[in-house]
Amino acid sequence: MLTRRNFIKLCMSATLAASLSESILPVLRQAQAEKQAEKPPVIWLELGSCTGNSISLQNAVDPGLDEFLSQAIDLKYHWLLNTVQGQDAVDILLDTVHKEAGRFWLVIEGAVMTAANGRVNYVFSNQDKMVTGLQAIEEFAAKAKYVLAVGSCAAFGGPSAAYPNPGGAVGVEKVVRDKPVINIPGCPANSDWITGTMSHLMLYGIPELDSLHRPKLFYGRTIHQLCQRRQLFEDGIFASFPGEAGCLYKVGCKGPTTYADCPLRQWNNHISWPVKAGAPCIGCTSPKFPDSSMPFYEHFPDISTPSTRVSVKKISAAFVALGVGVVGTHLAAGVFSRRIHQHFLDGTKPSDPTPPENLAEVKQELDDLIRRQNALLSETKQLETVAAKEKKSWARRVADFWRTEDKDGK
Ligand code: SF4
Ligand code: F3S
Predict the structure, then answer these.
(1) Quick check: 67 and 132 in contact, CB under 8 A?
(2) Which of 149, 213, 260, 265 could form a disulfide with 154 if both were Cys (CB 3.0 to 4.6 A apart)?
(3) Is the CB of 227 within 6 Å of ligand 1?
(4) Which of 235, 237, 281 to mutate for ligand 1's pocket (most ligand atoms within 8 Å of CB)?
(5) Torsion sign across C-alpha atoms 279, 280, 285, 287
């Protein structure tokens, strides 16, 4: 059987050209034949979501999804893929929960909707009794062997929990507290992240997880670390519009703070990924996505505002010349670290010293920038106060709405 070390190497390979399941399926088949791996019964439940992760799973090509679902796992219930529907499908689902307790895996796609005691999200009906996602997960998770939260909504709330979140969407972990939840975030999750994590579970048990319970083999490095445009970042060559050739940092790329292997793995049968297609990474695997990433195509405040621009060269020159850390941003640190290192640590002169032609002017520009940033910060604080009030009023209105519904509906 493939050793765990080689399995991890395979998953993290820089030369991935095809679906991970293509390489793994024969290993799984052999392991199952030799009774070294189980073919687990799997229940896939969709709660508050757009079905994007189920659709993404269909990018598991060569072999296709069918082969993975039929040969690697024993898919008992998935509302889109069931061969029977209605009560027959629900009977299989409940049978699995009761007869395979402690053996079956529960895969959750979508956020858990908690408003009105979960009644904003019914997931199936049993003998004409509607069952909410919240009820299902509370009952099923306790009996499952593993709980997997697939996609950012299931892992962290994701777009379903975006402000003002009237449905009370939360990630699975907030509801399932008595056992570890394996998070496979992404909007949607890449099919390899799903099949790869499942394969690791079958062959070797729970993979090493990071502090947000994501498998490190897929989420252990940042997009920025793996990005093909990284050299452009280092060289300070930036696109000023999505689609342009430079590094997309200044048009909002969240790659430096986003953990996932999209640059290696790629999407749509391994042919492209956002930055390759000219779009900045919007941080879809991050815990507070999308609220924390918006506006998607705007660079977060550091050295550039819509009306003020200080060129990279000037900043670098000022940075070195002034010797102060007023612009202590990731960008400044990344672009200029080599020069600063050379200047201060080696004691040699920078090879490209670019001394400011007019230091006073550059300093003035920096001072203006800092003033503008302070003004923006105070404006942000005011907006936050307004937003907090609005949020309270929303929460009140939503609570009133559900109180009325409770009275009328029951
Ligand atoms: Fe790539 Fe974005 Fe990093 Fe630029 S900022 S190198 S586009 S990940
Ligand atoms: Fe998501 Fe960024 Fe990858 S937006 S798909 S983590 S490149």
Answers:
(1) no
(2) 149
(3) yes
(4) 281
(5) negative
Domains with residue ranges and CATH for the chain:
4-219 (3.40.50.700), 224-298 (4.10.480.10), 303-410 (no CATH)
Percent of the chain clearing pLDDT 70 (strictly above): 81
Question: What atom in ligand 1 is closest to the CA of residue 248?
Answer: 7
Q: How many CA atoms lie within 13 A of 315 on its CB side?
A: 24
Beta-bridge mates of residue 409: none
Residue ID of nearest Cα to ligand 2 atom 7:
281
Q: What tens digit of pLDDT does each residue of 235-276 get?
A: 999 999 999 999 999 999 999 999 999 999 899 878 899 999
Nearest ligand (C-alpha, residue 253) = 1
Q: Which residues, judged by CB distance below 6 Å to any ligand atom, belong to the binding site of ligand 2?
A: 186, 223, 258, 260, 262, 273-274, 281-285
pTM attached to this predicted model: 0.76
Measured from the Cα of 284, ligand 2's closest atom is 1
